[in-house]
Amino acid sequence: MEKRAILAAVLMAAVFIVYQTFFFPEPPPQKPPAQSATQAPVAPTPAPAAPPTSPAPAPRASQAPRPLQRLATVESPLYRAVVSSEGGKLQELVLRYRGEKPMVIVGDLGPAGLQLAPGGNSPGEVVPMSFDKDALFITDKPGELVLSGEAAGLKIRQTLRFHPDGYAIDANIRVENPGAAPRTTVLSFPWFTRQTWRATPEKFQGQHPTEIVVATQGSVNRIDDLVAAYNIVADGDWIALDSVWYLAALVPKAPGFKVVAATDGKLPDAKTGDTTPAGRATIAVRATPTIGPGQAWEGNVVLYAGPKEYDRLKALGLQDTINFGGFPLPRKWGGLPMEWLGVPILLLLNWTFKHVGNYGVAIILLTVVSKVLFYPLTVKSMRSMKAMQALQPQVNTLRSKYQKDPQALQRETLALYKKHRVNPMGGCLPMIAQVPIFYALYLALSVAVELQGSPFLCFGHFIWFDLWICDLAAHDPIYVLPVLMGITMFVQQKMTPTMGDPRQARMMLFMPIIFTFMFLNLPSGLVLYWTVSNILQILQQKLMDRPARTRATREAKDAGRA
């Protein structure tokens, strides 16, 4: 029994340490810091009547002067965007999602605008364009912003369609060839990010991508090292810059597009594919159409920049960007995809929230349901452990008798268990069956962006910290919940039947202290789940011990009367 308890404790500690080290993000600060000196300032918000302008880069000697950059503002119930006339790129995009979450930082993160490379061999250049309006207000129906321009003798029209109830932006591109000869051109939609977000002290509440996710030929691949050298040009369904809670994705909706990923700020050359590392990671979708004289080509791309809510992502086919991980199994069996369990739990969590209106209460109810479902297995496990504890004196006698004959000790011990109809694995197997479910619940709470900014018991704010849990995605600011978790874990261990060397049992009592320190900086939602699980385990233990206590009390009264 002591080996089983030690093994379970070691496995739990290993799971938490590995997950915190490699998967769980650092908690973002409450306020975004000021821009660094090396970062280009975000363009100011334009007024509808007189939008601000900024000078374009100096023109080349063989090139006509580029028009001044103009900005158009898009106001939506879910976000605020500023669109630049330089290829229709987003100069600013701030989500209104439990506070303001920036998805674009000029020079460090965001789209580079529609780029065109005539002939397919020269580097792509951002297409200068003009707006049909300087401001767009989205209320109850979609709105469109139309941009038009000319580049390399081609007429280009880009229509951006914004929706009031979603974060996806539909981009429709039309390229006309007014010349007398066919033209081959390369059109690209790049989105870049700084490579070393984890290495910089600068943090903010929006997205700071940590990996590239690409779907090609029905499989999803992840590049979790943005600094490593890579160059991807392939037919694919979508490509995205991913973080734990937010996503920037490009989804081509017309044939002829390829997905591209490179380790620099420019797209790889269309002919050679060469790149030069420049401190950026870039994703893009790219098309290389050949347009006949007097003909036109059209393409459609969906740009998604928003929170990783499962229903929204599934509508665009992006649900695989949520990384539930996998549960390790023997190599010959492969692995157990945790989305099989994590997705139903996540959907159940959101469904419960719709009815109770508080994610903290939803977590408690979900934990109660899981405990009720596994109650029969828990009873079987506890009964087996009690039976093993009752036989422990006889097992110790056999150990003393056959201490020099291990084979005889094993034979006699098994015979003792068989005689009393005790299964030595009966206490472990029911617990092993529960591990994937509890692990999936843990992962679902870890990746649920819905918890960000969601309060549980929030009594307000005092100076610089919250009273008490005003954000289930952040750690407990006054550490009450982790301490309560440690106390309940200690009580649970004291109530669990133990046997064997008393010194080992005393050593196990240090596990609540270790787990308390491990849980100090974990999100409050996870600590709440673990604490409620401990409390329910204590109640189940008391419920199972009640018949034994009643029987002992009755026997004591009968003995007193006698």
Description:
With about 550 residues, the protein is an alpha+beta fold. The protein has helices spanning about 1-20, 310-315, 340-355, 360-375, 375-390, 390-400, 405-420, 430-445, 480-495, 500-510, 510-520, 525-560; strands spanning about 55, 70-75, 80-85, 90-95, 100, 110, 115-120, 125, 130, 135, 145-150, 155-160, 170-175, 185-195, 210-215, 220-225, 230-235, 240, 245-250, 255-260, 280-285, 290, 295-305, 325, 335, 455-460, 465-470. The protein folds into two domains: about 70-320, Beta-galactosidase, Chain A, domain 5 (Distorted Sandwich), CATH 2.70.98; about 340-560, no CATH class. The protein is about 35% helix and about 25% strand. A nine-stranded antiparallel sheet has the order 9-11-12-13-23-19-18-15-16, with no helix packed on it. A hairpin with a 5-residue loop joins strand 12 (about 155-160) and strand 13 (about 170-175). Helix 9 (about 480-495) runs antiparallel to helix 11 (about 510-520).
Strand content: 25-35%
Q: What does the largest sheet look like?
A: 9 strands, antiparallel
Shape: elongated
Strand order of the largest sheet: 9-11-12-13-23-19-18-15-16
Any idea how many domains? 2
Ranges where pLDDT stays below 50 over 5 or more residues in a row are 1-8, 18-62
Percent helix: 25-40%
Radius of gyration: 30 Å
| Structural class label | alpha+beta
Give the averaged pLDDT, no decimals. Answer: 78
Distance between termini? 38 Å
CATH architecture designation of the largest domain: Distorted Sandwich
Number of strands: 27
The number of helices is 12
CATH class of the largest domain: Mainly Beta
At the third CATH level, what is the topology name of the largest domain? Beta-galactosidase, Chain A, domain 5
